[in-house]
Amino acid sequence: MPVPHPSPPAKSRTNIKPPAVFKALDADEFNRAWAQNSGLTTRSSQALRSVGVLRSWSDGQVLLSRGQPTSAAWLVVSGRVRISVITAEGEEQLLRWMLPGEIAGLSSVFAQATNPADLVAHGSTQVLYIERDRLIELIGRDPVVALDLLRILGLRINQLFDTLADQGMHSLEQRVWAALERIAKFNSVTVPDGVMLRVSQSDLAQAASASRQRVNQQLRHFQEEGLIRLGYRNIVLLRK
Q: Which CATH class is domain 13-33+171-238?
């Protein structure tokens, strides 16, 4: 279920309306659909396990740095991987989290290019390390896996365009709401009065390319309008 970008806000904040999708959103079903779309199929995951090596990482450990050469893809088995970049101003910008079943490094492996972002373990994390030669050999003999990886690359391209579109928004209000929508796609759960995003305001600020103070002020405006409820390291998008 795609989450539409918010319409440009009206001059009066009292006219801000949350996207209609949050009025009747089953977050558990939504998350399952997102995982099925952004993650590999069970068959492909099993095939990759036959050619990969399982590695464990503790919270905060760097799997791969931006600009670092890589000859392997990374399939998340458990935990989460934080993907971010450092801006020209020296600030970290959170791009997304990788969840179990998702794979990283495909573009670098196929193009034999350096890694485009920092990959950091978020909590205790296990990943399957798949060397390029073994991955290429598997693709050559299993077209089903090849097609599944092409699907993943296509989704990543779409996500890139979404991110670029969000960054092009000049309004902080729009950027913050768009970041909330992106996070809701892959890191939310159903609560009685809405959808709870498990995210800190610092992470949200990085995702919205703004300072934590400005994002906090914007979130409090959203809360005053009854659009969200702020909690400890979580934000609830309220149903209307």
A: mainly alpha
Secondary structure of residue 125 in the 3-state scheme: strand
pLDDT, tens digit (0-9, with 9 covering 90-100), for 133-160: 999 999 999 999 999 999 888 887 877 7
pLDDT, one tens digit per residue, over 96-131 is 778 888 898 898 888 888 988 999 998 899 999 999
In eight-state DSSP terms, residue 61 is -
Structure tokens at 237: 């998008």
Domain map of the chain by residue range? 13-33+171-238, 39-165
Rounded CA separation 112/20 (Å): 43
Would you tell me how many other CB atoms lie within 10 Å of the CB of residue 72? Answer: 20
Burial zone of 65 (CB within 10 Å; 0-12 exposed, 13-18 middle, 19+ buried): middle
